Amino acid sequence: MSALAYTQTAQAQQRTSKVNPCPSIFYEEPYNNQLLVPNGCPPNAFTNRQVGQGGSAVVQPRILVKPQGLPVNRQPIPYPESRQNPIATITPASTVDVKLKNNTNARITYQAIGHTRPRILLGGEEYILKNVPTPVTITVVRDDGGLLRVMPTSSEGMLAVLLDETTTFDDNQGVLRIQKDGQVFLN
User: Fold this and answer.
1) CB 89 within 8 A of CB 152
2) Is 27 helix (H, G, I), strand (E, B) or coil?
3) 3-state DSSP assignment of residue 7
4) Residues 172, 107: one domain?
5) In a domain, 11, yes or no
6) Distance between alpha carbon 76 and the CA centroid of its chain, in Å?
7) Nearest-CA neighbor of 96 among 148, 140, 169, 156?
8) Do residues 185 and 87 make contact, with C-beta atoms less than 8 angstroms apart?
9) Could you tell me if 28 and 104 lie in one domain?
10) pTM attached to this predicted model
11) Structural domains of the chain, count
12) Domain containing 51: what range?
């Protein structure tokens, strides 16, 4: 076959080939009970259920259409301060100093969200974040994936935070939230 004839045959095949608009995957387990079929395709079990419940029949693949009229839980999730008691209280003057002391042998990444970039605190080191405006959230994470126990102590305008290793998941912590009124919460 000449190069010209081969090229013409390939072009003709490209013009006449079509993508299957109704792939069989929509009719096989488990997808026939999880995915809505594209427009123009015969309905699968999931599509029939959605239409039967008053749901929309306008469908696009891989988009979950939620039927109207189903109950939705609109109850807001409470903030930590409404669920627990503060672990410490400081007397801030709109800003606070936070002393972080790494008592582990691991590197710890910490950040005052919105005020600093992520920083490294090596094992045995300490650092004071000065004049951090409240409210503020401070995160601490061991770089080796180990567990951390956060132990705060407070004085006027200063929060000292000792970071120790722990072996139990119940003690693992890493998010410190200092409120405008000086209450400190830990998650």
Assistant:
1) no
2) helix
3) helix
4) yes
5) no
6) 18
7) 156
8) yes
9) no
10) 0.55
11) 2
12) 22-69
